[in-house]
Amino acid sequence: MSQADDTPPGAPISPMESLIEYPTDFPVKVMGKTQAGFAQSILAVVKRHAPDFDETTVGMRPSREGKYLSLTFVIRATSRQQLDALYTELSDHPMVNMAL
């Protein structure tokens, strides 16, 4: 989806517009401290927003010293509202340090 033809180049995109065409495969990376239940809790959040997500495809990568864990999910995003709701819930989750 692109900006309207009468929008000047470089103008801000309105909050309801998106540069992504849906549906699309969309990677989501979540980082938090390594702790019991972290991956399962985050997977539950992702599954609420992308029920068709295949949990066997989660990528996990510990930090060099093992203090943090990075999880990568590639979901089939169907709308900007879906992604906004997912990122809001992930960002508010007490185990999450960062969601990208």
Helices and strands, with pairings:
Elements: E1 24-33, H1 38-49, E2 59-62, E3 68-77, H2 80-92, E4 98-99
Antiparallel strand pairs: 1-3, 1-4, 2-3
Helix pairs in contact: 1-2
Please give a quick description of this structure:
With 100 residues, this protein is of the alpha+beta class. The chain contains 2 helices and 4 strands, in the order βαββαβ.
What tags apply to this protein structure?
alpha+beta, Alpha-Beta Plaits, four-stranded antiparallel β-sheet, elongated, disordered N terminus
Low-pLDDT sequence parts: 1-5
Helix content: 25-40%
User: Helical stretch count?
Assistant: 2
Mean pLDDT: 89
The CATH C-level class name: Alpha Beta
Under CATH, the topology is which?
A: Alpha-Beta Plaits
Tell me the Rg in angstroms.
16 Å
List the helices and strands in order: EHEEHE
Q: What is the straight-line distance between the termini? A: 22 Å
Shape call? elongated
